[in-house]
Design brief:
By secondary structure, this protein is α+β, with helices and mostly antiparallel strands. It has three domains: about 170 residues, FAD/NAD(P)-binding domain; about 210 residues, D-Amino Acid Oxidase, subunit A, domain 2 (D-Amino Acid Oxidase, Chain A, domain 2); about 120 residues, Orthogonal Bundle (Helicase, Ruva Protein, domain 3). The chain has 18 helices and 18 strands. Strands 3, 4, 5, 6, 11, 12, 13, 14, 15 and 16 form a ten-stranded mixed β-sheet that branches. Strands 1, 2, 7, 8, 9, 10, 17 and 18 form an eight-stranded mixed β-sheet that branches.
Length: about 525
């Protein structure tokens, strides 16, 4: 991608151009806004304080879904807001699956049932869920007998099983999807930088005209001018709002969602579980993901922090919820855990578990546009609403929206048979499948780097290669070992010990590529180890 990946060139562009939109925040909503605006011909700058998807957007349940729980609440309470949210999300689900076929897939989910009345109840509910998706529906939901349930998901507890209802939703790699949103925005003309912090907002005669910015890698400070400033910082949106107006009342409540990862033996590779009952009335998913089993999530009020920690009680809570369905799982079976903060539009005295995941576009008196709330599946609709508002309100010269049919970078020219070609080149089956699904149409370039002497695995039993470290450093704006281990690959989210063992080699490879001194390589490795042990 040439100069588009040259950091000094990007910083120079930031300081010498006037942008239509300056987007603060490099998570799902921020990169979604950047792509929506840039693809419509607007001049866009995107700034992320840490790495793309370092926070909430890499810590989801990895489902592209309408929200079965929200549908249940909508039906029980006649809540049209919740119902519309489910319908919109199911529409967006089909767009995400189509635009990133390498990073997403349909996934069968079973709801195991142990009481006779549950069979008609959940069958009817999931049929309504299917009908709400309209022509974009995936597989037809259907009832499975106890024998069929155990054949599809052998780990399910057999005693008292009355069967299951099977339905389909989507699954994806959230961090790489987020990254490709940023890279596709760059391809469409945006200037996008991670590790670039907004330290202040610039005003002229009471109106926002840009932001003061600091490059967290090189220390350079600069000013970026823009016609419109967008606050898309997720759980941190009130922090940016207070830079604009220290007296602004908060508009968010944060909720913590904890997930754990178990060995792949706890789930078949093509089927997950929706556990419909927990001790506090929520749902939990058990999902095959990237060679492991992902289990979650919690939903509890939480303070806003950069890298929220997971408590031992939260891990044991999740293990307790799955015990009636999968049997007792020993604590040492947990390979990794993490917490993500959901940004929920605040309603006084509302339980965070009952807040609708709808989104908000708000304009301050100075012109700051804040986009917050929502969820991963509706990122594109959120971006569309924000950009449409900005175009109308500020008279920006934008064309029609194209993102409903705009493939992400690795989805452009994607060949479903790419994994077989990689196997024919001599790559092991798991590596070929991984490269094909992580990089899509760009996998051939990673394979070329591997063929030049970098085909070694970063960790035994995992498909990640040294070549990916070099590729991501050169072409995917990776600047630290955890950028590679947590978000360009997903090893840190899958196996903490394997990721810790890989840090020295990843640091050395990045150091060779970026010209780090031996001391800088050691410092980077030490910092990555400390962060990984703390909270990824």
């Amino acid at each position: 991608m040439g100069d588009t990946m040259n950091r000094n060139h990007l910083l120079e562009q930031l300081s010498t151009q006037t942008f239509d939109l300056l987007v603060i925040g490099g998570g799902a909503s921020g990169t979604g806004v950047a792509l929506e605006a840039a693809s419509r011909g607007l001049k866009v700058a995107l700034l992320e304080r840490y790495d793309f998807a370092e926070g909430t957007s890499s810590r989801s349940t990895k489902l592209i879904h309408g929200g079965v729980r929200y549908l249940e609440i909508a039906v029980k309470t006649f809540d049209r807001v919740q119902l519309n949210l489910v319908r919109d999300a199911l529409h967006e689900r089909s767009i995400m699956l189509r635009n990133a076929p390498h990073l997403s897939r349909p996934l069968w989910l079973l709801t195991p049932l142990y009481k006779p009345w549950e069979v008609p109840y959940y069958y009817t509910g999931l049929k309504i869920y299917e009908l709400l998706s309209g022509p974009q529906h995936l597989g037809r939901s259907h009832y499975l007998s106890p024998q069929e349930t155990l054949k599809r998901f052998p780990e399910v507890q057999q005693a008292g099983l009355k069967g299951a209802v099977a339905y389909q939703d989507g699954q994806f790699d959230d961090a790489r999807f987020n990254l490709e949103l940023a890279l596709t925005a760059i391809q469409q003309g945006a200037v996008a930088l991670n590790n670039t912090e907004v330290t202040g907002l610039l005003k002229r005669e009471g109106r926002l005209v840009g932001a003061a910015v600091k490059d967290r890698l090189g220390g350079r400070e600069l000013e970026v001018t823009a016609k419109v400033v967008v606050n898309a910082t997720g759980p941190f949106c009130d922090t940016i709002r207070h830079l604009d107006d220290p007296q602004a009342p908060p508009i968010l409540k944060a909720s913590s969602g904890v997930h754990i990862v178990l060995d792949k033996q706890y789930s078949p590779p093509d089927t997950g579980l929706l556990i419909p009952h927990t001790e506090d009335g929520r749902v939990v998913f058990v999902l095959p993901w990237q060679g492991g089993t992902l289990v979650g999530t919690t939903d509890n009020p939480a303070p806003v922090s950069d890298h929220p920690k997971v408590s031992e009680e939260e891990i044991r809570y999740i293990l307790r919820q799955v015990q009636p369905y999968l049997g007792e799982i020993p604590r040492p079976a947990v390979r990794s855990s993490w917490s993500g903060l959901r940004p929920l539009v605040s309603r006084p005295d509302a339980d965070t578990a009952k807040l609708a995941r709808d989104h908000l576009v708000q304009e301050s008196p100075s012109g700051l546009l804040t986009l917050t709330g929502g969820k991963w599946t509706t990122y594109r609709k959120m971006a569309l609403d924000l950009v449409n508002y900005a175009v109308r309100r500020f008279g920006l010269p934008a064309g029609e929206s194209r993102t409903a049919s705009l493939p992400l970078l690795g989805g452009q020219g994607f060949d479903p048979g790419g994994a077989e070609r990689l196997k024919a080149q001599g790559f092991p089956g798991d590596v070929a499948e991984h490269l094909h699904h992580a990089f899509g149409s760009r996998a051939a370039e990673v394979a070329r780097i591997a063929a030049e002497g970098h085909a070694e695995r970063l960790a035994p039993n995992w498909p990640y290669l040294e070549a990916e470290v070099l590729y991501s450093t050169r072409f995917e704006l990776a600047h630290t070992p955890l950028d590679i281990l947590a978000r360009r690959t997903r090893l840190a989210f899958l196996d903490t010990q394997a990721a810790l063992a890989a840090i020295p080699r990843v640091s050395a490879l990045m150091g060779q590529e970026l010209g780090w001194s031996p001391q800088e390589i050691a410092n980077q490795a030490e910092a990555a180890q400390a962060q990984l042990l703390q909270a990824i």
